[in-house]
Amino acid sequence: MERVMDQSEVTSASLIQDALDDMAATGGRVVLPAMELELDRGLRLHTGIILEGQGDETILRKGPGRIYPLTGYHNYGMHDVPVDSTEGLEVGMTVSIHDDRTYGGFYETLATIADIEKGWVRLDHGIEADYLAEASPCLTTAYPMIYGHNIGHAGIRNLYLDGNRAENERAMGGCRGSAVYFYRSHQLEVSGVSEKDYHGEGLGFQMCRDVAVKDCTSNQNSGNGLHPGAGSTNVLFEGCTSSGNEKSGFFFCVRANHITVRDCTFRDNTEGISIGTRDCHNLIEDCAIERNREAGILVRRTPSPTEVHSCVIRDCWISENATDGGRGQVELVGDAHDVQIQHNRISGTHDRELPGIFAEPTVRRIHLMDNMFENCVPEVTAPREGLSDVPLTMTVGYGTADTQDFKHLGL
Asked: Could you read off the pLDDT of 1-39 as tens digits, one per residue?
């Protein structure tokens, strides 16, 4: 089934959401015209739905953010929150609730307004934590611009998303949202999406499997550009660009495994690519990683038994990173092991004398093969006992996971 909408049908986000909801039972495509539209809520996808636009001619812009202080303490599981004012809020809007202790993590609540009464906003599900009066609890109009929870065989194609950061004081926490966000979902496609200037992460997902992200950009966000997280497994990023983000261009979060990052560019971020807790069996190849303020590729400090291992970095151009910090173009710390770095061209900066590859004494079984170095002094700083002369055998990347590798997700 296909629903091709014209400009007269898309004068508000709620009308697009109606079209998505109408197709929820059957699945199909909702096609948007060339247009510009300000969103007052996130667009929620359903199983079997593709939301598609006309490339850069279909512009969705996040509306201005507002903050509504809660009038007092409210506790976990309640479906309503008390506020001084409900001015500007409507049923169907997407909102976030948190306090100063819970902001940015899984204890932040993302919900849809189900009803509004004087002094109260009722939500479509219970809040995720206790929000304390002394910790500045609030409801905000921070939300993902497009998102899906517990869905499958869905996707987004050919859209331009403007996060309108200047008019959004409060960021969306990366665990519960990003400009494009999925949670506990599978068989997802995001292609041809250009996103920029969101107060939060550009594109992220938590506890997802079988995801393909192709030919997308994620630029100038206040958080990470691209963020696969919380056990997400079997993911392909191909032909993507992530630049000018205040955090990492690409952030592997906890147990993000069997992921391929191919033919992508990471430029002018803090780190180019950051790999951390239990992020294993991943492949980075044919990427350009340039001019990031700290390491081009950072393997974060994660102690055993949650250390990084079984990763391959090959055929990449890694150049002029670590301009403001970091200890090398590629930096490996903590208990990382079984990392293969091969056939890369690694170039330093003229302003800082740094190694091309830096590894702490705790790192082990790092295999270096046929890398070319320019302006790196020295080329490698690593304990001899931490290096392996023998190529490592490991299974890495998208398409290599088996049944056992998905059991933690329950999907």
From this structure: 999 999 999 999 999 999 999 999 999 999 999 999 999
Distance between CA 204 and CA 229 in Å, rounded?
A: 7
Q: Do the beta carbons of residue 183 and residue 175 sit within 8 Å?
A: no
Tell me whether strands 337-342 and 364-369 are parallel, antiparallel or unpaired: parallel
Kindly tell me the sign of the dihedral angle through the C-alpha atoms of 102, 103, 105, 106: positive
Beta carbons within 10 angstroms of residue 351's beta carbon: 10
In terms of Cα–Cα distance, which of 274, 361, 364 is closest to 321?
274
What are 133's two structure tokens?
């009066």
Answer yes or no: are the C-beta atoms of 120 and 129 closer than 8 Å: no
- Rounded distance between C-alpha atoms, residue 386 and residue 272, angstroms: 24
C-beta neighbour count of 99 within 10 angstroms: 21
Q: How far is CA 84 from CA 53, 103, 138, 155, 336, in A?
A: 39, 20, 10, 38, 50
Cα dist. 99→4, 70, 134, 135, 367 in Å? 41, 9, 9, 6, 46
The CATH T-level fold of domain 2-62+143-386 is: Pectate Lyase C-like (2.160.20)
The answer for residues whose C-beta is within 8 angstroms of residue 112's C-beta and 6 or more apart is 41, 44, 92, 93, 94, 95, 123, 124
Q: How confident is the model at residue 103 (pLDDT cuts 50, 70, 90)?
A: confident
The candidate with the shortest Cα–Cα distance to 205, out of 271, 254, 142, is 254
Least confident among 102-106, 132-136, 356-360: 102-106
Distance CA 314, CA 312 (A): 6
Strand 67-69 to strand 80-82: parallel, antiparallel, or no bridges (unpaired)? unpaired
| The token pair that represents 74 in the structure block | 């409210």
Longest alpha-carbon distance in the chain: 70
Query: pLDDT value at position 351?
Result: 83
